[in-house]
Amino acid sequence: MDRKRLKYTIAGITAIILALPAFSAGKEEALIEMPKTYPAKYDSNYIKQIKPIYKSVGKDEVIYVALDMLKGTNGEFSRNAILGNNLSGRAVKIEFRDLGTINPDYAKFDALGWKKNKQLFIYINPRHKDAPPGALAALLSHEALHQDEFNSLAEETYAWTMEASVWYEISKLYPESNDEIHPLVVRENMLKKLFERGGYSNKYIKKTVMSNEGYKNLPSTSPGFEDL
Hints:
single chain, mainly alpha, 7 helices, 36% helix, globular
């Protein structure tokens, strides 16, 4: 996949729904039962070790795990962008937020990219706080590609293809992420099928983007994404 320079826009929207992490504590020592969708290596000690790397993006543990799961995948580029290798030069702030408080029209959005002054944000609908981190990782790989006020069909095609390719990798590397009862996982698997059907290209994803009513007013291309 050609790695063009990253972009960011408030139009970056994706869909996710998943299952809330469960915690349990012993009487003498806090013992944490990690969610079943966490890969085995992400026990409490490992998460404590990686927290300093990711705490600049926000406070949610599941986001730390999701970003860490991008290492070694096509989403490594997006991970680095979120950590600060982006047009703003700052770490992207990620939080779960009621999007309707920004604009009532955004209330049902699943995620939203936002820029305030020089700071970039990714807001995720709070109903997705229980998302398996592998699915959130695929989502974040998409959202990190939007970094300015411009958007286009070419940019969305690139972002959706990135998401599909990352999910394709993660579902193989971390099969526990593929919890098929969650709507986001259903959606990610549909994207993966389009990706595979197109010979691991954007062939069918592009057709899906082109027919999406939410993108009907977008231009064909935008800066950094000149090829549709």
